Amino acid sequence: MDPQALIDTTYLAPLPAPLWFIQFFKVLGFVLHLVLMNLWYAGVPVAVGLWLSGRAHGRRWTTRLIAQMPLIIAFGVNFGIVPLLFIQVAYGKFFYPATILMAWTWFSVFVLLTFAYYGIYLFAHGLKTYGPNLPKRFAAAGWVSALIFVALGFVFANAMSLMSNVAAWPGLLQDHSVHGAALGTAMNLCDPSLWPRWLMLFGLALTTLSVWTVVDAAWFAGNESPEYRQWSCGFAWKTHTVGMLIFAAMGAWYVFGAWPEDVRNRMLHGPMIAHTLLTGAIPGVVWLLLAWGARASSSSVARTPPGRGWASTVFIAQVAVLAINAVTRQIVQNIELQRYSASLWKETATQWSPMALFLAVFVLGVGVVAWMVLQVVRAERASG
Amino acid sequence: MHYPWWYVPYLTSPMLIAAVSVLHVLVSHYAVGGGLFLAFETAYAYKRNDRDYLAYLKRHAKFFVLLTVVLGAITGVGIWWTIGLASPLATEVLIQTFVFGWATEWVFFVIELTAAFIFLYYWGRLPPQIHVRIGWLYAASAWISLVLITGITAFMLNPGKWLDQPDFWTGFLNPQFLPQTIARTGGALLLSSLYVYLHAAIVIKDQRLQRQIEQRSTRPALLGAVMIALGGLAWYFFLPESAIRALSAAAALNVLMGLLFAATIVVFAALFFGPYLNPGWLHSPGFAGCLLAFGFIAFSTGEFIREAVRKPYIVYNVVFGNGIFPEETSRLRREGYLQGGTWTAQYVRAKYPQVVVDGRIDDDRLRALDRNAQVDLGAVIFQYHCNDCHAPAVGYSAVGPLIQGWSSQMLADLVDELHVKRFTMPPFCGTEAERDLLVAYLQTIAPPPPHGMRLNGSSTR
Question: CA of B161, closest CA in chain A: separation in Å?
Answer without folding.
Answer: 17
